[in-house]
Amino acid sequence: MHELAAALVAADPVTARRVGALDPRTGAPTLDLPRTDPEHLAGLEALLLSWSGEATAAPGTPAWLEQRCVGAEVAVRLVELRVARPWARAPYWYVETLGDALAAVRPDLLPDEGYAASYVHLLRSAAGFLAGAREQLHAADVPPLWAELAVPAAEGLRSMVTTDLAALTPRLPGGLHTLAELLLRALAAAVEDLLEHSRTLASTGGGTWAVGEAVFTGLLRDYHCLDLGVDELWEHGWAGVRAAEEGLVELAAELDPGRTWQEQVAALRAERTPAQEFLTAYRSETERARRITLEHDLLTVPPEEACVVEPLPEFRRAGLPLGEMRTVPAYAREHVSRFFITPVDPHATPERRAGHERENCPTFVRSIVGHETYPGHHLQSVHHQLGTDEESFLRFFRMPLFVEGWGLYVEDLLEETAFGRGPQALFARRNRLWRALRVVIDTGLHTGRTDHEEAVALLMGRTGMDRRMATGEVDRYTRHDNPTYPSTYVLGRDLFHRLRERFGAGMPLGRLHDALLAHGSPPLPLLERVLEHELG
């Protein structure tokens, strides 16, 4: 592992779990929780600053690409330490961090005394970790919305602790059963306390989630490596919205001149997927997407890979109205991704249930599965791992401009090669409008051009999205780790099309894609410089 990557893994268990690093004590994913004390955070900042500086290798070389990716990682982590500070401002950070650690527990390993000891240590430290939120979270710094997001997340975590973890207790060896039961009771009480504290902060918090123009611009420049200002991005977003709307009108007139695109999309959404069939539908379309990738030779499908479709853990559902993709971790031993789908809330009103089923209509499921699985995020993550050396920082580093740009480019690719100009393409173009609006909303939210309610209304009015879905989307854009992220879908897709136009002449499409994905997931403007040397 690269020296900086190893240091970040050692300093932050959250990073360790994300990249698939294993605990040397147990040989399984680490179950430790992160530290938030000032000494530790200051040491982490000093570590990052020691790796800052200009790239010294020749531009366009693999060494230069690696050095520039190190610089990008330093830039985004310094923003987290100095600006976002989720441990001091985001109550949901505590819930999600603990929830992810608990979700990493391997039930099959619990009978092993060494692993069971690590699990009990996690339970022992968990209540204190949550209790630390009261000391770290100051009302003046907490955005009320971030506290609101913590409430349903904590409710889901409470269910996980009292039901799922309680069911694991009999697996523990020796006399650990009684201790685990006591620790789970203490943890449940700590979750309840954080839940109530979050409710209080939702009404007393005085912080803001908007990062401001200077930070936003810095992320575009130093993290994404884009020569793009806020005003340019804002205009680019609106230009994309207009183009997407024109494309929708044109295709709708071609398919059915008697109905608007909104009416045609509404009819497609009315063919909703029943709640009890969500997983079946996504699994079936995942298999279909894999077949399409192979039949059209869109990208090499390496052996021994798999994409598993599962229900999203309850504590994550509040901020993810549709679901979440967990791709192959950088240092995982197996090439297995997990595509988590958000089930319908069993306590939802009939109206809300129907809305959730409409958002997961068969046409939408088909349109999003390629983006997430084959040849999208899952398969790209496999190529990322296979195309990078374990000792290189490129194995560790993943740039959203590349990852999300590839996913959106894949939607265009599937329309071009498999779906054609039919109802599926109409729905895909509606999704392009949604992604173009993300650029506008992302830029607007963080620079004061748009507020939360205006952003929700914009999504509802321009795409026909229902309020639940639109609110969940905008809530996600406000999170501590999301400034500039929503914009990367469109920006990255456009850059992939540019790379294809520039380097794809005379090359089979699948081999071009193999070449584009052979350097991990770096910033695309940097990859273009490397490809100039390799492909001419």
From TrEMBL:
<dbReference type="InterPro" id="IPR010281">
    <property type="entry name" value="DUF885"/>
</dbReference>
<protein>
    <submittedName>
        <fullName>DUF885 domain-containing protein</fullName>
    </submittedName>
</protein>
<dbReference type="Pfam" id="PF05960">
    <property type="entry name" value="DUF885"/>
</dbReference>
